[in-house]
Amino acid sequence: MNRSRLFVLFTMLVLGLLLGSSSALAHSVTIDDAFEMGLGDTGTIGHKDEPDWKGTLTLTVTNTGDDPWGDFHFYLQQDGPVVFGTTDTIFPTIMAGVSGYTYDISDYALDFYFYSDPVENGQSATFLLYTDNTEEKLGLFSISMEASPVPLPAAAWLLGSGLVGMIAMRRK
Q1: Could you report the per-residue pLDDT of 38-61, keeping only the tens digit for each?
Q2: Which range is the signal sequence, renumbered to this chain (predicted)?
Q3: DSSP per-residue codes, 35-86
Q4: What's the domain range around 66?
Q5: Beta sheet of 42-48, edge-to-edge order
Q6: What's the total number of domains in the chain?
Q7: How many other CB atoms sit within 10 Å of the CB of residue 105?
Q8: What is the pTM assigned to this prediction?
Q9: Residue-wise pLDDT tens digits, 105-139
C-alpha cells in the first residue's frame, strides 16, 4: 500500500474516533449534537460528574445505517460503582421520537425495545438516562451504547428452513 493511502486511512480513523465520541460536562446535562450511528456501531460517552454525583443525561441518536433499529442499549462498567437509576420525575418519559416502547433496567444496563415503531434510516430518538454515582463519587465514567435490528420473526426462519428441506427431499 502506498503512503498516501495509509495517510488517508489513518486520517479517517482519527476523524472517526474524534467524531464518534462526545463528552458530557456536568451531573445533569443535555448533549445537543446528535450521535450518528449505524447498525452494529457502538458509541461511548465520557461523562464528567460532579456533586451531587447523580443526575440525568439527555442525548439524541440518529440512525445513519441502512437497517431499522428495533432496540437500543446503554451499558455501564459491570460491577462498577456507577449504576443506572430511576426517579418518579423522569420515568416513564425517558424516550422521545418513538411511540410504543418498553424498557428493561438493571444496575448496569438500560435496554429500550420499540419493535412496533422502529427507528428508520435518517430518523432520531432521544433518550433520558439517570445515573447514580454516589457510592464512590467518580469524577469521570463512561456509558457505552449500541443499536440492534428489528428481529426477523421466528416463523420466517421456520418457513425458510422448511422450504430448504422440501427442496432437498425433492432432489432425492
Answers
A1: 888 888 888 788 888 888 888 889
A2: 1-26
A3: EEE-TT-EEEEEEE--TTSEEEEEEEEEE-SSSPEEEEEEE--TT-S-EE--
A4: 23-171
A5: 21-25, 42-48, 140-149, 69-75, 109-113, 102-105
A6: 1
A7: 18
A8: 0.67
A9: 888 898 988 888 899 999 998 888 888 888 888 88
